[in-house]
Amino acid sequence: MLQFWFPVVFWFSLSNPIPASFESAFVLTVKMLEKVEGFDMERVIEEFERVTKDAERIQRETLKRILEDNASAEYLLNLGLNGRTDPESFKAFVPLVTHQDLEPYINRILDGDDSSVLTGKPITIMSLSSGTTQGKPKYVPWNDELFDTTLQIYYTSFAFRNREFPINNGKALGFIYSSKQFRTKGGVLAGTATTNVFRNPGFRHTMKSIQSPFCSPEEVIFGADFHQSLYCHLLCGLIFREEVRLVSSTFAHSIVYAFRTFEQVWEELCVDIKEGVLNSKITVPSVRTAMSKLLKPDPELANLIHKKCMGLSNWYGLIPELFPNVKYVQGIMTGSMEPYLKKLRHYAGELPLLTSDYGSSEGWIGTNVKPTVPPELATYTVLPQIGYFEFIPLRELEGAMGDTNFLCMDPKPVGLTDVKVGEEYEIVITNPAGLYRYRLGDVVRVMGFHNSAPEIKFVRRSSLLLTINIDKNTEQDLQLAVEAASQLLAEEKLEVVDYTSHIDLSKDPGHYVIFWEINGEASEEVLGGCCNCLDKSFVDAGYTSSRKVNCIGALELRVVRRGTFQKILEHSLTLGAAGSQFKTPRCVGPTNTKVLQILNENVVKNYLSTAFN
Ligand code: AMP
Questions:
Q1: Can you point out the beta strands (E) in 115-201?
Q2: Which residue ranges does UniProt annotate as crossing the membrane (predicted)?
Q3: Ligand 1 pocket, 532 CB below 6 A?
């Protein structure tokens, strides 16, 4: 889900910090937004301290509130809770579920059933999660209560961030994009979670009350064409370059993507600024109108930017060079975003990189209250008032089934305050929008506690990415292998732009395929070395032993044309994804035929590993 610099308006009420229902919290939020300008960081931090000190009680209260608000939901009525709201009964009566289990209910809502299916108050809006793993977006319920939890997360992390890096009423260059909202055949409104946040009246109101902190007008954020909006975001950033205090997006990928694009279009941007005329490739009328209000001929600025770009060495330090008053770069930078950190650091020069918060279309989980910690070491503190959280010990899953892929067993999750430092868990969430004991599919490690609330590190998606025989490799194993092999490329001053993987079973034995897009031409020798290094870097005993006896064939490295991963992004936009919510799938399954086709059509070279010959 989205993290962007959220405007500075204080919304917590200390006299009634946890309102009786999420609805009243939402109403309260909007009222506070209307009345209060200015942001009392210390009060937000005090509130955070209060709830984290009392995490167990707050969890009980949160569960009670969710169950009371939704007591009339058919789903809960059928489970026979009969008004019980304590965690013990909840666990006894309500099963752990996956998205697949809920699909019959979700499909009824999508088809127009406006009764209380999953929630007391019927769901009228759905979020489309990126569905990166399965290759097709998933629908999950959305409501105002989720918007409210979004604000709680944003304000908390903002308070901590702003304490360390005050931005003093500057502007944010936010690479944020709203996807299209559409109606399902049953009339339910659907869009990505980020889109649902942007389109919420509370969000618009917040924007208004602080005179929009983004450089870009709403028309650009809501523009119908991702590429045109990106171009205009860059242009707006340059126009307001002195005022830009932070550069952000939901996920780090979009920031890197934006500045890679800048490398291509910077001269066009300079021409637009010099002449005060928007490039004719921007065709969306509302975007043109909004931009024409901002764009005035400014040859001096155009010359300055031109000079700065010419003076850079391989675009190192581009962000602070363009935006002299920027304080930090912010977006989700952990998990599948880590591979982009190197490039982001290159663009950011000495600027701090701040990872945002941790959440999903299904709901928020944790907030980053230690903004000075580098993304590689970042943790997220779980907010006990935004949902009810359970944790399945990973050892239990692995011990019972031998792998972590098994969803049908009956694991025993522990509560938020019962987790142990150093242990890994799969997260289960209960949210105020109709998900009860929902297995999110993320694995986290507990790194410590803030008061009694755990500080967690995102580890990986729980499903195995690569498995053919007795081998087990996760997205993290793949990332480590790619990092090791790309060291060889770095020696030639080249880098992996993006990567993914696939299990090829078309011949016996099956083998791993790694797709790489590289930013230049590498020699045959180096690429052959990279391929062997990838193969050797999967150190899982199941893999190495299977490779030795040829139960798994030689790993194959397929190098794809420049721009292939952009095509994958474009394909995901056609499925309704928002540009800022895009995550490259790290493994492309056999059912994800379109993405597989894009990759295979763009292969320019392939190599087979000789590492086990
Ligand atoms: P979406 O499907 O677009 O809602 O994306 C949600 C998923 O993105 C989560 O389940 C995580 O796997 C991943 N994600 C979200 N926030 C973070 C984070 N801070 N660090 C790592 N991964 C994250």
A1: 125-129, 138-142, 171-174, 182-183, 189-192
A2: none
A3: no
